[in-house]
């Protein structure tokens, strides 16, 4: 790594705790010049990382110190709660001017995160032309290609030569700063192909653009969901894709750096969904975090009350054989765990579209077989342990049978529940876990205590 | 979307089950020509998606039908078990020739997935120059920048003009097919900056390359872990980054499409880790899947046996008050669930390096407060329900106290366990869950049954 001397490069290593402490010291001692000296070399992602762990007062002091040179791109990198804090440090006019300096996709992203009142004020303070662009962007559905796209693209007709194209590019103003593909359009401004900039560089001036274009003709409508767009990037190893309106006309392009963010976001959603927590923002206030998690904890509470109701049906059996109470959590835990393994694999397969091409029933069958195999292994182990522990082979046999049943059930329910939810348009990452564990708890307790009542009493 | 007439475009929509069935029919009926007609329009990612749901016999027939036109890039997109199946359909010589046609990063990826014997045979069947490149690639650690990088890069001296650079590019052979950045190197071949190809296109022929380069001077050593490389791409919105050897000389470059795969992989690892399943391959055989999951199920079994041992200490209390057995799963489930919410948020924050810049202790404190808030809410609700259900306010109070305790504990353990594991270099995504639920189960049962023994007997 090329160092810059004294200090590890934060663009590579991230910020060190020591650096954050140093900035915090300077803020606390009221030394804005020292703050500026420390912060100026940081890139926008690092400045965002610095703002997040600070408290509100420190954030305000930091923004105060660097107000005039503040790069608004930082705002796009902040967690929601921190962004609100930072945005408050700017007047409407300053904020409007800062956002108008951004590329249209970043500006759109920022504008949509402001609360309604602030958004309207900021939009009104903007140059009319930029406001019109943002308003059109906001007209596309949330998380759609239209929201992600950059509107400034380079479009050329296919009959141009490489030479004409280079001359045009050298002459034109108002093109994006950097771009990686040129789009070839027909007379109706519909995309006909894509030309990587390197091909324009490498071919002789007299070559026709249409002869070096990639004519796979991929494009996406502005209304397509960003998750599907990300999938198209992955499947085709793209760097850019043109975005078209209803009439198939080129209106913008999406670049892969935005897709990296989408992929991160979607993976995070799946992961947090599986853990049943809607919270993605570690710096949000405790009250807000507590509230967001309550709905999922409530689901858990209802699940577990259902399980308790099942147990209460077998009060008599437990009073007679206390060992049942000791062993019953094992049946539920093993079924729940085996089931969540299956659910996770299914959620991932559905997200990666590994199951769109058929093979679904083979996977269901496979998971039942896996449940059977591991059911036999763990039921034998645990049945033996229980027999030795309580000196009662009947109890061991009942425990083993209930575990077998619950682990096979986990294979069936772990596949069928996510598939069914997905079929009905419900996100399986979020909903499959609670459904599954309710069934493995309720059935686990029911089968174990039920078999015990029949055979041991 | 530009359609291609009859059929939805699989590059955009993925394969339809109908299409897969059609191919399968043609394979079963032994109609290789129909198979070829169906499969030829597919891109490599689609062909990979088609191969995965087929069984071994169908895969062999499909490869047979398209053997001569098979694009080896398909192999890079397959799940491990399917790839082994497909690779077996090729002779060593054919496979060596196919791999030698790939870009060096893809070839390296494929070679390292072969078993030892096959790898040695295939390497020996390759042109010596290509073999040398692969051997050097294999000398870098697994999952390092050196394994990911493309070796063919465009490097130019900074004193060249745009015109000289374009002339050089038009003249040269053996450059990569498409590229998005040129690298500026000093006389010792060390990277000094990066020039997006679009800047070369847009500037007059007499402009010096060094005047239009991005001189942030970012580069990564070949030994850097891919996860850290991905993080640098994210933080700096890069499309390419140069890779350097120990002497800081430019030896290759990593492009963002490979980073998209790394990000997917890392997110998947975290997600599967949290679900305690090492399996990522839904098309692996049941026996293999069952085996891979056993280690995690064993961890669950040990956890839950520990919990059973705790319960067995309170046999007397349960025999006297069966309601304890009915209510005790609630304490464990709520603590475990609240704790896993915290663990997931922490795992994500650690993976995204949101916590490298300090603020750690604030987050621990916050989670304890969140645990306290939600503890109060749910303990009150469930304490009331238990009091009404069993007509015993003492039981309700004991249940509420145990729930409070366990949910505050979940906040503390849910933050401290991942942080501690991370400090000691253990992946918290995999290990934090089992640790956490063991504590919430064991402590949950212990506190609930213990309080009950003291106050209710």
Write a brief caption for the model.
With 457 residues, chain A is mainly α.
Give me some keywords for this one:
MgtE N-terminal fold; CBS-domain; Tetracycline Repressor, domain 2; 3-stranded mixed β-sheet; globular; MgtE_transporter (chains A, B)
Outline the structure in words.
Chains A, B: GO terms for molecular function: magnesium ion transmembrane transporter activity; metal ion binding. Chains A, B: Belongs to the SLC41A transporter family. Chains A, B: Residues 213-269 form the CBS domain. Chains A, B: Homodimer. Chains A, B: InterPro entries: CBS_dom, CBS_dom_sf, Mg_transptr_MgtE_intracell_dom, MgtE_N_sf, MgtE_transporter, SLC41_membr_dom, SLC41_membr_dom_sf. The structure is a homodimer of 457-residue chains. The first copy, chain A, has 457 residues and is mainly alpha-helical. Chain A has three domains: 10-143, MgtE N-terminal domain-like (MgtE N-terminal fold, Alpha Horseshoe), CATH 1.25.60.10; 155-264, Roll (CBS-domain), CATH 3.10.580.10; 286-456, Tetracycline Repressor, domain 2, CATH 1.10.357. Chain A is 66% helix and 6% strand. The first copy, chain A, has 23 helices and six strands. Chain A has helices at residues 10-13, 17-28, 32-39, 44-51, 56-66, 73-76, 80-87, 92-100, 104-113, 116-124, 128-138, 145-148, 162-171, 197-202, 209-212, 226-236, 256-274, 286-312, 315-320, 323-351, 360-390, 393-423, 428-456, and strands at 155-157, 181-185, 191-196, 220-221, 240-244, 250-255. In chain A, the strands form two sheets. A three-stranded mixed beta sheet of chain A has the order 1-2-3. In chain A, strand 2 and strand 3 (191-196) form a beta hairpin. In chain A, helix 20 (323-351) packs parallel to helix 22. The first copy, chain A, is globular and about 90 Å long. Chain A starts with 9 loop residues before the first helix and ends with a helix. Mean pLDDT of chain A is 87; it is low at 1-6. The interface between A and B is large, with 139 and 139 residues.
């Amino acid at each position: 790594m090329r160092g810059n001397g004294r200090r590890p490069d934060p663009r590579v290593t991230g910020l060190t705790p020591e650096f954050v402490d140093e900035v915090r010291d300077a803020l606390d001692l009221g030394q804005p010049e020292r703050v500026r000296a420390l912060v100026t070399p940081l890139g926008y992602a690092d400045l965002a990382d610095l703002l997040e762990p600070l408290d509100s007062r420190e954030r305000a002091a930091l923004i105060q110190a660097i107000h005039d040179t503040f790069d608004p791109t930082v705002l796009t990198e902040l967690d929601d709660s921190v962004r609100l804090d930072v945005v408050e440090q700017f007047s409407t006019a300053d904020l409007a001017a800062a956002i108008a300096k951004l590329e249209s996709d970043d500006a759109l992203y920022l504008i949509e995160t402001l609360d309604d009142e602030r958004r309207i004020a900021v939009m009104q303070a903007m140059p009319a032309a930029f406001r019109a662009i943002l308003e059109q962007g906001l007209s596309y559905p949330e998380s759609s290609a239209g929201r992600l796209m950059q509107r400034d693209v380079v479009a050329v007709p296919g009959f141009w030569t490489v030479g004409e194209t280079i001359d045009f590019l050298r002459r034109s103003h108002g093109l994006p700063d950097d771009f990686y593909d040129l789009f070839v359009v027909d007379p109706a401004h519909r995309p006909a192909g894509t030309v990587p900039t390197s091909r324009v560089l490498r071919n002789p001036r007299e070559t026709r653009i249409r002869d070096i274009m990639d004519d796979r003709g991929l494009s996406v409508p502005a209304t397509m969901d960003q998750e599907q767009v990300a999938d198209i990037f992955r499947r085709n190893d793209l760097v850019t894709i043109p975005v078209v309106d209803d009439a198939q006309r080129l209106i913008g392009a999406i670049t892969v750096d935005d897709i990296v963010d989408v992929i991160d976001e979607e993976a995070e959603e799946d992961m947090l969904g599986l853990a049943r927590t809607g919270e993605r923002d570690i710096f949000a206030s405790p009250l807000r975090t507590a509230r967001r998690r309550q709905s999922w904890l409530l689901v858990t509470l209802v699940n577990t009350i259902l399980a308790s109701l099942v147990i209460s049906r077998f009060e008599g059996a437990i009073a007679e054989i206390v060992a049942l109470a000791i062993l019953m959590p094992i049946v539920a835990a093993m079924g729940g765990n085996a089931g969540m393994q299956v659910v996770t694999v299914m959620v991932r397969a559905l997200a990666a579209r590994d199951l769109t091409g058929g093979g679904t029933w083979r996977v269901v069958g496979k998971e039942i077989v896996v449940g059977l195999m591991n059911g036999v292994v763990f039921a034998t182990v645990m049945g033996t342990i229980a027999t030795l522990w309580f000196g009662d082979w009947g109890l061991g046999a009942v425990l083993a049978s209930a575990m077998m049943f619950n682990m096979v059930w986990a294979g069936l329910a772990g596949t069928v529940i996510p598939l069914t939810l997905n079929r009905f348009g419900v996100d399986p990452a979020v909903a499959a876990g609670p459904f599954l564990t309710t069934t493995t708890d309720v059935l686990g307790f029911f089968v174990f205590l039920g078999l015990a009542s029949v055979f041991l009493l």
